[in-house]
Amino acid sequence: MTPFDTEATDQAEAKRFGLMLFTRFPEPGRTKTRLIPHLGSGGAAALQRQMTEYVLAQVQRATQRLPLALEVHFTGGSPSQMQAWLGDAVDCYPQAEGGLGDRLMAAFSQSLGLGRPGAIAIGSDCPELTSEHLAAALDALHRVDVVLGPATDGGYYLIG
After folding, report:
1. What is the pLDDT of residues 110-131, one digit of tens each?
2. Using CA atoms, how far apart are residues 69 and 63, in angstroms rounded to an integer?
3. Which residues partner with 22 through β-bridges?
4. Would you tell me how many other CB atoms lie within 10 Å of the CB of residue 80?
5. Would you say 149 and 137 are in contact if contact means Cβ atoms under 8 Å apart?
6. Residue 156, Ramachandran bin (φ over 0: left; ψ between -120 and 50: alpha; else beta)
C-alpha cells in the first residue's frame, strides 16, 4: 500500500461515525447482578456473554453496509481479557470512571477526538437492535445534533 492509499483509508475511516458498544466483561458475580438471585452468578455472567456476542455480531454486520466504525467500551476485565474474548478485529477501550453520564461523555469525546463526524452509543442488552435502527440514527444525525432511540421502559436504547 502506498502512502497515498494509507491517507485515503485514514480519510475514509474519519468519515465513519463511531458506533460505541457499551458492555461489561462477563465475570461471575460482577455482571448482571440483579439477575444473580434468579440465574446464579455463573448464569448471569453467561447471559452477559451471550448478549454481548449477539449484539456484537449484529452490529459487525451493520458496519459492512453503514459508515460506522465499531468500538467496544467495557468495564470489568482487562484489555487482554477483552481481546481474548472478542478477538483482534474489535477495538476495545476501558470505560472512564464515574456514572453512566461520565462514561458516555468520555467515550463520545474519545470517538469524536479520532476525527469522526459523530458517534452512536448502544448497550449490549439490546438484542432487538437492527441495522435499520442504526441507519435511521445515522440519517437523523445528518439533520439534528442529538438522536435518542426511545425504549419502552421510558429510557433509551441508543444515543447519538
Report:
1. 999 999 999 999 999 988 999 9
2. 7
3. 73, 123
4. 9
5. yes
6. beta
Alpha-carbon span 41 to 31, nearest angstrom: 8
Q: What is the pLDDT of residue 14?
A: 55
Q: pTM, whole model, 2 decimals?
A: 0.88
- Maximum pairwise Cα distance, the chain: 57
In this structure, which amino acid lies at residue 36? I
Q: Collect all residues with Cβ–Cβ distance below 8 Å to 15 and sequence separation of at least 6.
A: 67, 117
Sheet holding 68-75, edge to edge: 91-94, 68-75, 17-24, 119-123, 156-159, 148-150
4-38, pLDDT tens digit by residue?
Answer: 343 444 445 558 999 999 999 999 988 898 888 89
Which stretch of DSSP H or E encloses residue 37?
A: helix 36-63
Which set of grid coordinates corresponds to residue 75?
Answer: 468495564
> Strands 17-24, 68-75: parallel, antiparallel or unpaired by DSSP?
parallel
Is residue 65 within 8 Å of 95, Cβ to Cβ?
no
Phi, psi dihedrals of residue 111, rounded to the nearest 5°: -65, -45
CA distances from 84 to 5, 80, 81, 87 (A): 30, 6, 5, 6
